[in-house]
């Protein structure tokens, strides 16, 4: 919901709550005698400071009016009383209430001016030694730097969190660096919109064809394309796009481009005589993966196992006869350093994997299991009978000295294991895989499991496909659908779809139902009826825990937005005892089923006394409380209770219905899938295949046969620009940055 944008001004009376990680704060502001509670991501504000704020009022029946601030200009306190209050509150490390009084008694209203411009004079105060004076001066400089940065950026209505991130990245030099190059604001970790940085640069009289502007524009375009899956772009495509977007000539482009290549701000890779351009991160990721895969591949077991005997023992113990390809997969896993195990549903991947784990453990090897999402890790744990972690958890997210996110496990601190098994590899992107490979010590086996017919990862790259297609890694593809699995129409229809055959929609006695509907309103009515009444009654399913509505698109009548609003009304209607918070797209309500839509490493959670941080893209949870007084909501993700500031709710969508893309790696007891047409770009085979294979026990298709078959016919593979396959095949014309 849009609110009227207002400006208010006042002095901070009291700081009620502060989140040091994301700068979120709740404070009382004295606005000319009126006390207003202010909430927002405003940074490290202290009592006594003057603020000019822009934002809007939000009202809560119990706690009254609060001002939700989006922009903040900070004025340091001017009166002696406020300066003392400000310093006494701990604004400058090393100054407490006693010292604050002494300093203000001596310097009065000029105190802050002296601290900023002549801090050596603090040594005039009795009790401040020259050493202490230096320490206080250094702390004070930090404070003034952030304040200057915030007030500079607030002129351009740049939100405070960008200023906070700029300060975190560049520290006390931030302002000086920005004056030289405002486009630094578009860089990694800050990621301000290029257009905004361009406005600042324009005011600073930076020319349109300045190399800094063009390089930043190119990087911005490459990053935006990374967001839709491309790790690089052909030079020709990039040149044209950049010229059009920035309004520059071809010669301007190439002059800046060549300089950026020279300075390693961009990288070029030649594939089949065509130049591809990379951002450093993606280039390092793909080159490192290619290098490291070669090293791991060449490792083979020094121990002389009798593989056949080991597999025979497993067969006897588990009363099973592995088929030829399963035996081959197990032998490869035990004898080689690296392999891919792939295959569609019901082809025995899990069974094979369990045999591998059993053999490794019998040999005294330490096996670790991981998957890209929480849900996939949970499923893996359930099937393998031992704990699987998310890749992020396995690598342990930590912050470096610059307060930037990194992983505790890397080449200097590798994972303590002999075998690492990664499930749902189709969902892993190149940047995360690079980090993972850095933490795999030489000699550790790496087994990658996944179905390459699933949709590719949300993040950039076509990792699993490229690894398989490169043919340099041993791949076992399981093809046989086991008898057990053949009973399931979900499994047999999934295999038909992937083979380009139309699914059998005629069966009424199976786990795969089709309801023909051509009218949208009738389809919606049926979805609600099935989710709310019929399936819970017939199968005992919980409408929100067991049943998931999947849909190709966000938009349209059967898109997620409309479906979620409808299903929220039906499954979790408003009630007196349910608190609510209005967001831009949805109203969030206690009891709502929700999904986190991006990786956030800062959100803190607790589970059975354990504390942790990080809620990731695709995690599904339930809102258990909304508190309008503190502007906080608590969401339960499978027992992890995570605290969200209201600003962070923009990263959360209702999840009664989710897109097929977002459902990757998840499985549900029952899936309802409307295929009504009207979303041509999303009308393709892999998407239908991915949706169908999300259902464990029951799949219900609603729509028309014509649209379903049209999806099967469209075998468009999502084309992604990457060079990994080429790099893996060792055909590179640029030398690897990692040497031999
Ligand atoms: N060699 C075998 N002989 C008989 N049955 C088998 C064999 N291997 C697997 N199965 C059975 O086939 C079914 C599917 O196997 P499994 O769950 O391992 O496949 P999957 O590829 O992991 O499937 P999904 O991807 O759908 O989870 C199971 O019921 C399993 O017990």
TrEMBL record:
InterPro entries assigned to the protein according to its UniProt record, in alphabetical order: AAA+_ATPase (IPR003593), Coronavir_polyprotein_1ab (IPR050534), P-loop_NTPase (IPR027417), RecD2 (IPR006345), RecD2-like_HHH (IPR029493), RecD2_N_OB (IPR055446), RecD2_SH13 (IPR041451), RuvA_2-like (IPR010994)
GO cellular component, one term: exodeoxyribonuclease V complex
Reaction(s) the record says it catalyses: ATP + H2O = ADP + phosphate + H(+)
EC numbers, comma separated: 5.6.2.3
Residues binding ATP: 346-350
Broad enzyme group: isomerase
Transmembrane segments: none
Keyword DNA-binding: yes
MF terms (GO), sorted A to Z: 5'-3' DNA helicase activity; ATP binding; ATP hydrolysis activity; DNA binding; single-stranded DNA helicase activity
Pfam families: AAA_19, HHH_RecD2, OB_YrrC, SH3_13, UvrD_C_2
GO biological process, alphabetically ordered: DNA recombination
Alphabetical keyword list: ATP-binding, DNA-binding, Helicase, Hydrolase, Isomerase, Nucleotide-binding
AAA+ ATPase domain location: 335-478
Gene3D superfamilies: 1.10.10.2220, 2.30.30.940, 5' to 3' exonuclease, C-terminal subdomain (1.10.150.20), P-loop containing nucleotide triphosphate hydrolases (3.40.50.300)
Family membership noted in the UniProt record: Belongs to the RecD family. RecD2 subfamily.
Record-linked HAMAP family: RecD2
Function as written in the Swiss-Prot or TrEMBL entry: DNA-dependent ATPase and ATP-dependent 5'-3' DNA helicase. Has no activity on blunt DNA or DNA with 3'-overhangs, requires at least 10 bases of 5'-ssDNA for helicase activity.
UniProt protein name: ATP-dependent RecD2 DNA helicase
Organism, scientific name: Ruminococcus flavefaciens 007c
Gene: recD2
